[in-house]
Design goal:
16 helices; electron transport; disordered N terminus; 9% strand; Deoxyribonucleoside_kinase
């Protein structure tokens, strides 16, 4: 087996790791720092004695985490070395999903596939709002990544990117709620922190207007500080020519024949990642960057992660891991209550009252036509969670508390 192909060609690890290129042996050299182990992979966990028992996961989907509960149910009592937020980043067609799923399995974490427009369009009753597109005005129709790839200059492209940020933001809240209520770490594909790289690439290609860009950043600035930044970001680096080859290889019609994923667009995505996002997020999170042109082995990445010491940043003014240095149990409880009970409050922060960008506004007449069609359908006759029995009385079905605000 060619070691150079199976070990990353490039690895950025802030402050203490040096990586040798494949020509130099492709090995990692730890530069004069003795580390304590932090995140542990499956093989390492199985080689150690069983850990002490922890409280069972809290059923945050159906129950609120109240002040009374917080007196007896301590958040940190479920934490262990793997109670971490890991985000996998990379360009289109970089095999992020396969990698993130395998990584989560090895680390014993929950995998969150990349957020998409299904979060908005597939309702709790199982209906997909796309089924109404042929019956409603064009400005009120659904517009997802397939539509964007086919027609990136469409009037709805700006709204699509704002809704993608909203989807990532919502998913990240869900991930934080899961971590704080169960103690299980999470692995996400992309996050609201990196979403702007696509907005900037769209703006660079003139797919969206300055007005859309302005609304996006106003919305982002109003919401992003409510979240807790990840512990670790893993960037799978694939050069643009290789990305274009991968797009052709997976042969999705809307990507291959679409107008969005041009070389210029993909190059701008790469530039935004490398010059802005990775630089900024590395001030808080640990950062690993791999040359993923020919793929790689998850086991090798796990070994690299095990060498990281997330507990070394203890100074009060140290920016690294600042969001996770919470000194008191009552403050952990406050964060847990925020993401468990107040998702509706966090989502309401997305309501920016901007009326100066025409492509983000739907006329009252079009909105009325849309509502008339959708809520005239039998599946939407009653409020979500309710149904009508033979007696004619409305009765409430049991639907998870945590999804009432979706």
């Amino acid at each position: 087996m060619n070691k150079g192909k199976n070990i990353m060609a490039t690895l950025i690890r802030t402050t203490f790791v040096k990586v040798l290129t494949p020509a130099q042996g492709g090995k990692i050299s730890v530069c004069g720092l003795i580390q304590n182990r932090s995140i542990m992979g499956k093989a390492l966990r199985e080689s150690l004695p069983p850990p002490p028992p922890k409280p069972a996961p809290f059923d945050y989907v159906n129950k609120d985490y109240t002040w009374i509960r917080s007196l007896f149910d301590r958040t940190t009592h479920r934490f262990d070395e793997n109670t971490k937020v890991v985000v996998v980043e990379g360009p289109v067609a970089a095999s992020k999903t396969e990698f993130a799923k395998s990584l989560a399995e090895d680390l014993g974490m929950k995998h969150y596939p990349e957020a998409n427009m299904d979060i908005h369009y597939i309702r709790p009753n199982g209906c997909d709002l796309r089924m109404f597109d042929s019956q409603i005005p064009e400005d009120t129709r659904t517009f997802d990544h397939v539509d964007f790839n086919r027609n990136p200059n469409h009037r709805l492209a700006g709204n699509f990117q704002i809704m993608m940020y909203t989807a990532r933001y919502q998913q990240y809240i869900d991930a934080l709620a899961h971590l704080l209520n169960t103690g299980q770490g999470v692995v996400l594909e992309r996050s609201p922190y990196s979403d702007f790289v696509f907005l900037e690439a769209m703006f660079h290609q003139k797919y969206i207007s300055k007005g859309v860009r302005s609304v996006y950043y106003e919305l982002r600035n109003n919401t992003i500080e409510e979240l807790m930044r990840p512990h670790l970001v893993i960037y799978l680096d694939v050069p643009v020519p290789k990305v274009m080859e991968a797009i052709k290889c997976r042969n999705l019609e809307h990507e291959v024949n679409g107008k969005a994923l041009t070389q210029e667009f993909l190059t701008e995505v790469e530039r935004q990642y490398k010059t802005k996002y990775l630089r900024d997020i590395s001030t808080h999170a640990e950062l690993l960057v791999y040359d993923w042109s020919g793929g790689g082995e998850v086991e090798v990445v796990v070994e690299d992660i095990e060498r990281l010491n997330f507990e070394q940043y203890t100074e009060r003014e140290e920016p690294k891991m600042k969001d996770w240095r919470i000194p008191r149990e009552v403050e952990w409880a406050d964060q847990r209550k925020l993401y468990t009970n107040s998702k509706h409050y966090l989502m309401n922060l997305l309501g920016i009252p901007r009326l100066d960008v025409p492509e983000l506004i739907t006329s009252a007449d079009d909105a009325y036509e849309r509502e008339k069609v959708i809520y005239g359908h039998p599946e939407f006759q009653y409020m979500e969670g309710y149904t009508e029995k033979e007696s004619g009385l409305l009765t409430k079905n049991k639907i998870p508390k945590y999804y009432e605000y979706v």
